[in-house]
Design goal:
The protein is of the alpha+beta class. Helices cover 20% and strands 27% of the residues. The protein has six helices and ten strands; from the N terminus they run E-H-E-E-H-E-E-H-E-H-E-E-E-E-H-H. The strands form two sheets. A five-stranded mixed sheet has the order 1-5-4-3-2. It has a five-stranded mixed sheet with strand order 6-10-9-8-7. Helix 3 runs parallel beside helix 4 and helix 4 packs antiparallel against helix 6. The termini are far apart.
Length: 263
């Protein structure tokens, strides 16, 4: 059955635009309440409402995400679909470790890329350099190219987020496992994002554990890596700063399962 609007949390501060609406039949009331009850811990980064009022796309930062479960992703992406004739709505939501992955999820559900970018006037950390912007654009517009394997957000000691993905692009077949490492400082208004390429997940885990040398950078000229004018411009700016591709190490026999990116 539908749930009375007065049973919903007060979401006016987040501009959810649900006044007078009830959850549609079949919606997960418990999940919606779990996501929105502590709305004072949700900081809106980007919100977009379609002109017809039927769809909303929200990108939120959950400042309490790691309180109960260390390593949890802090970005919450949510879509709202309203039926004005019935005054009901449905929602879909998913947590993500990186801003660009949350944006990718929203784009896959109908949002225009520019609609889910963080507005320049929004306070908060910003990319420290053009390479960070390149990689964020690459992830945001990647569609189904990357499958997330594992991730971990450390906001207590090292202040970094690590995301291991599998790259389905045939051009990355020799080293299809990509490690995206976002690093920031609580005292700095900026953060950096870097990418490393590995033959398998075990090699990525070993690098995370030992941190011996820089991330093994992927080739900067993979066809189709960047698909938007904004990303292309950023690539031009950073082309000279990219390190050359290191020689590949000899193949090793499979290693036992690792604890992954958790340290």
């Amino acid at each position: 059955m539908n749930h009375p609007a007065h049973d919903l949390p007060d979401l006016s501060a987040l501009d959810f635009r649900l006044d007078g609406y009830t959850l549609a039949d079949g919606s997960d009331e418990y999940l919606f309440h779990a996501l929105t009850t502590n709305h004072d811990c949700l900081a809106p980064l980007a919100t977009h409402h379609t002109d017809d009022g039927r769809h909303s796309y929200l990108l939120l930062h959950d400042t309490a995400a790691t309180w109960d479960i260390p390593g949890s992703p802090q970005l919450l992406a949510m879509t709202l679909t309203r039926e004005p004739d019935k005054l009901t709505f449905r929602f879909d939501a998913e947590r993500h470790p990186l801003l660009s992955l949350a944006q990718r999820w929203l784009i896959a559900r109908g949002a225009a890329p520019d609609a889910v970018r963080v507005p320049p006037e929004r306070t908060g950390a910003r990319p420290a350099d053009a390479l960070t912007t390149v990689l964020e654009e690459q992830l945001m517009t990647s569609g189904t190219r990357y499958d997330v394997v594992e991730h971990y957000t450390d906001d207590c000691t090292e202040y970094e987020t690590s995301v291991l993905v599998y790259d389905t692009d045939p051009a990355s077949a020799e080293r299809p496992y990509r490690l995206f490492l976002e690093t920031w400082s609580p005292d700095s208004p900026t953060y950096t994002l870097r990418e490393g390429a590995f033959r398998n997940a075990e090699a990525a885990w070993e690098w995370m554990e030992n941190r011996e040398g820089p991330l093994p950078a992927p080739h900067p000229s993979v066809p189709g890596m960047l698909t938007t004018p904004r990303a292309e411009a950023a690539r031009t700016t950073t082309r000279r700063s990219l390190q050359p591709l290191p020689a590949l190490p000899p193949a090793k026999p499979p290693t036992p399962p690792s604890t992954g990116l958790r340290r």
